[in-house]
Write a structure and sequence with these properties.
Length: 114
């Protein structure tokens, strides 16, 4: 398996190819290529403007194998930064993922004791 940086670059190449195919079929205004790339790779609302990018923090903290906690962190990191999204909505989403993760851990623990 490729390291996270290599995998991210490969994923970006795949997305670019898909976007190019979609854009060629679409009608109307087409976003500039740099806008598309930045929105995919380094969206401002996920910490691209600061020293800590969310996915790097998640990897550094060893949470990349915990979907629920990692997703909650992404919502907390973007809270109040994504245009048009109420910060309370991001907080509620983070709480929902944390609660679901806690429930899932309980279910797994119960299954192990049986």
């Amino acid at each position: 398996m490729a390291d996270p940086e290599t995998q991210a670059a490969q994923d970006l190449d795949t997305l670019k190819a898909q976007q190019q195919a979609t854009v060629s079929r679409a009608s109307g205004a087409v976003p500039q290529r740099r806008e598309i790339d930045r929105a995919v790779v380094k969206p401002d609302h996920y910490g691209a403007d600061g020293p800590y990018e969310v996915w790097k923090v998640i990897d550094a903290w060893g949470l990349d194998n915990d979907f629920y906690v990692a997703t909650a962190i992404t919502y907390l990191a973007r809270m109040g930064k994504k245009p048009g999204v109420d910060p309370d909505q991001d907080l509620a989403k983070a709480m929902q993922y944390l609660n679901r993760g806690r429930l899932r851990r309980q279910q797994l623990a119960e299954a192990e004791t049986k």
